[in-house]
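Example pasted here:
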Amino acid sequence: MKNCNKMVEPMYVKEYEICNKSARMFMFEIHTAPKPQKQTMQGLSYGGKKQFYDPSKLTKKHIQWQVRPHAPKEPLVGALEMHLTFYMPIPKHISGIERQSMVNGVVKHYKRPDLDNLAYVVTNALKDIVYKDDSQICRLVLEKHYGEQPKTVIKVMEI
């Protein structure tokens, strides 16, 4: 029986085989502390029209800047599966055994920011770069952990 799961090094693209069907998988690492989507804000109104702005715009641009050099030449089309793992910074006042428990995953990150707000920023930032639209994501797996190095690991697979 053929092994269908091969490991993928971060920031590189590899082809892998699933049940005799060739599919692509892209894996990216964003090496900054994960930041959640912030609520859209209303700015000053000009001529009676309300102006709105996205306070998470810079966060999205930063994600795009790190992903774009390693993204597919053309955005993916069709159904996709995405895995997002967020490694949150360990509070500075934590040390010793408690710190090691956080790194080893014994102590879970159950505080803010919310997992769905973290995912929202990433899925929207990758639009038109890795895939045409985030509506193509049929399966989304989310995880949030403590990590020595805060980062976001993104895995996008054709299904």
In short: The domain at 13-158 is CATH 3.30.1330.70 (60s Ribosomal Protein L30; Chain: A;). Confidence is low (pLDDT under 50) at residues 1-20. The chain has one domain: 13-158. The two ends are 21 Å apart (CA to CA).
